[in-house]
UniProtKB/TrEMBL annotation:
PANTHER family, sorted: NUCLEOLAR GTP-BINDING PROTEIN 1
Biased composition, class Basic residues, residue ranges: 695-705
A Pfam family that the UniProt record links to this protein: NOGCT
Top-level lineage group: Eukaryota
Protein name in the entry: OBG-type G domain-containing protein
Organism name: Leptocylindrus danicus
Residue span, OBG-type G domain: 169-340
Keyword Cytoplasm: no
One of the GO BP terms on file: ribosome biogenesis
Residue spans of biased composition, Basic and acidic residues class: 627-638, 653-668
UniProt keyword terms in alphabetical order: GTP-binding, Nucleotide-binding, Nucleus, Ribosome biogenesis
One function term, GO molecular function aspect: GTP binding
Cellular component GO terms held in the UniProt record: nucleolus
């Protein structure tokens, strides 16, 4: 499992996009409306909040960028040198340093501007300081355009790097181009590296995985290395050099003895000697490849000696061919075994093993005499093992009945002893087994007598006699049983009728004739039905529909005749209720008529006053106004000196002005009945953000400027 996952680095926006993100977030997350009439402390807090929020957003974004990228001093040296090879360590650190400096500059700008806004004496000055603060911070961000673009390219390339673990079991393939490294990797791993008949097909590190001895092994295919000084090697070659320098692995150096790669054996040997210092403390294998084209036995003696001179110390020489697959498995097994033995030796030679060995004590018992002491098994245990009842119930092998099934070799005994052992086995037969033993389905029925609950269990299977103590079952049957049953039912009906009569409040000795009793019976049935319906529909109605009719098509519920006819069926006189309803309806109708007349009179007076004063001169208007005032005074004095009847809707109102005011309030209150908007309705007007809709609009985007 790789310990570094560079694919989790988040994309880095450009300088312009970062400015848009910061300003848009400030606009959405902070208040947008302020008025000059507010207290100066409130205005200062409004603009200080915007500056602080912008600074916090910028600091958060830039800190996230800095923390996402790996620190070259904290990661594995392999990745540190690989980043130096691919991206230039100095340029990488410089870009991150510029981002850090920009964050500190934005913090300083915000701190200074907030200090100045604290002493702002007007809304205009606070706004100008806020605008200057946001402008300066955005300018700092725009200056980081090149650094942000460089870091975005580095992020993309880091995401394409192979996810390898520098500390796991690894095999590293190296050599000149076109010697068969990628073909060997495709043979032993599930990787699919491109193989072409020209040099430098592999331009970066490729990682594959293989299994050996139930362990996962990592195989790294490196680009080809040319034989020239280190300072002249390009970026592609330096990736292989970096892997050789920092990874603890088993190195496979490939040599093409057929020289079809375009390089002679002398050049390949020279390359091996030039990079030999990188093989220190590594398990080295020299793999002679393409023996299908040039067999090792027919190779020239001088060239064979040159290759054999490279084998010294712990180095091994192996032959193989990717085309015929001769020796591929041997090369893989040898490389894995050498690396596995080296890893074990390194751990054993460390200090941790001594600490563990000090805790262990190994004892080897020595015989005290020559007596043979076998295991002693009790006789009861031997008998239980033979019967199959030894051990816990969950550990025993279940023995199932095979009744009804064809015999097999497992349960068909070869002699009588097997059958006896089967019969003696303590196996409880199920009802299904008994069914198959006694003829199968439809022939055998279970005996339920074993389930009888008797005083003595020995009586369960006894035969039931037909005559006992001189009597039969028929002797216990009463011939008058039907007559007695009819008498009991009549008595029960009488008791029920008496209980109902008592519930209705009627004495038992009533003097009702048959017709009246029949009518009472009908009324009782109606009462039962009404109670039943009331229980079924006992849900509480909403207040606004309690007084409404349940059915507008039911004429009996709307007119007096229908009510009188329906309630007459129950013997209820409805004349008083109908007369009371008619009087209430007349009063309500009169009140509505008086209210409408008063409203029309007030509207006519207002319209007459407006039309009369339109064509008057100033003197006439003054005279008319004076007459109105005198009229109001006379009404006040009249109201105090005389007691005259007034309209109920005008009770408590002193003059016509109050009446008009009440009528106006009533009209406003009626708006909710006719669907008009009131003071409680929400109003959503078009709100234009000032900084988005003012100033000169240049070419390009200007919707979030």
């Amino acid at each position: 499992m790789p310990i570094y996952n560079f694919k989790t680095i988040q994309p880095i926006p450009s300088a312009g996009d970062l400015v848009d993100i910061v300003l848009t977030r400030t606009q959405r997350r902070t208040p947008t409306v302020i008025h000059p009439g507010y207290k100066i402390t409130r205005i200062r807090n409004f603009y200080m909040r915007k500056v602080k929020f912008t600074q916090q957003t910028i600091s958060e974004k830039l800190s996230h960028i800095i923390d996402n990228f790996p620190r070259l001093n904290d990661i594995h040296p392999f990745y540190a040198d690989l980043c130096n090879t691919l991206y230039d360590r100095d340029h990488y650190k410089l870009a991150l340093g510029q981002i850090n400096v920009a964050k500190n500059l934005c913090d300083a700008i915000a701190r200074d501007m907030v200090r100045m806004i604290k002493y702002g004496d007007s809304a205009y000055r606070c706004k100008c300081l806020k605008r200057a603060a946001l402008g300066r911070m955005c300018t700092v961000l725009k200056r980081q355009k090149s650094a942000l673009a460089y870091l975005e390219e580095v992020r993309k390339h880091l995401g394409r790097l192979p996810a390898l673990d520098p500390n796991t079991r690894t095999m590293l393939l190296c050599g000149l181009p076109n010697v068969g490294k990628s073909s060997f990797m495709n043979k032993i791993t599930r990787a699919n590296v491109d193989v072409q008949p020209y040099a430098f097909t592999t331009k970066s590190l490729f990682v594959g995985h293989t299994d050996y001895r139930y362990l996962r092994w990592q195989v790294i295919d490196t680009p080809g290395i040319l034989d020239h000084p280190l300072e002249e090697r390009n970026t592609i070659e330096m990736q292989a050099i970096t892997a050789l320098a920092h990874l603890t692995c088993s190195v496979l150096f490939f040599v093409d003895i057929s020289e079809q790669c375009g390089y002679t054996i002398e050049q390949q040997v020279s390359l091996f000697k030039s990079i030999k210092p990188l093989f220190v403390n590594k398990q080295l294998l020299i793999v002679v490849n393409k023996i299908d084209q040039q067999p090792w036995d027919t190779l020239e003696i001088e060239k064979k000696q040159m290759i054999e001179e490279l084998v010294e110390g712990n180095t091994s020489l192996m032959k193989m061919s990717n085309i015929s697959e001769d020796g591929v498995s041997n090369v893989k097994a040898t490389a894995c075994d050498k690396l596995l033995a080296a890893r074990v030796d390194s751990r054993v030679s460390g200090n941790k093993v001594d600490n563990i060995m000090n805790r262990l004590q190994v004892f080897t018992p020595a015989p005290r005499d020559e007596v043979v002491r076998d295991a002693s098994i009790p006789e009861s245990v031997r008998r239980a093992q033979v019967e199959g009842t030894y051990g816990a119930s969950k550990d025993r092998k279940p023995v199932r009945s095979t009744a009804g099934y064809a015999p097999t070799k497992d349960n068909a005994g070869e002699n009588a002893d097997d059958d006896v052992a089967m019969d003696n086995a303590n196996v409880r037969k199920t009802a299904r087994d008994l069914m198959w033993e006694n003829g199968g389905p439809g022939v055998w029925a279970p005996d339920y007598r074993e389930q009888y609950d008797l005083e003595n269990d020995e009586w369960k299977f006894d035969a039931i006699p037909q005559i006992m103590d001189g009597k039969n079952i028929a002797d216990y049957v009463d011939p008058d049983i039907e007559k007695k049953l009819a008498t009991l039912e009549a008595e029960e009906e009488q008791l029920i009728a008496e209980a109902e009569a008592a519930a209705m409040g009627r004495d038992e000795e009533s003097d009702l004739d048959s017709d009246e009793e029949a009518l009472v019976g009908v009324i009782r049935e109606k009462v039962k039905i009404i109670r039943k319906h009331s229980k079924a529909n006992s849900s509480t109605l909403p207040r606004q529909v309690r007084g409404r009719m349940t059915d507008c098509h039911d004429l009996g519920a709307r007119n007096a005749d229908g009510i009188r006819e329906k309630m007459g069926e129950y013997g209820i006189d409805m004349e008083k209720m109908i007369s009371r309803g008619r009087s209430i309806e007349r009063k309500e109708r009169g009140r509505k008529r008086e209210r409408s007349l008063a409203r029309n009179v007030s509207d006519d007076d207002a319209s007459m006053d407006e039309t009369q004063t339109d064509g008057m001169s100033k003197t006439q208007q003054k005279r008319s106004k004076k007459e109105k005032k005198d009229k109001v005074k006379r009404e006040h004095s009249l109201a105090r000196s005389h007691s005259r009847p007034r309209d109920p809707s005008q009770m408590g109102l002193k003059d016509e002005k109050a009446v008009k005011k009440v009528a106006k309030e009533e009209r406003l209150g009626r708006k909710k009945w006719i669907g008009g908007s009131g003071e409680g309705d929400q109003r959503k007007t078009v709100h234009l953000v000032k900084w988005m809709n003012t100033g000169k609009k240049r070419m390009g985007t200007h919707n979030k400027r």
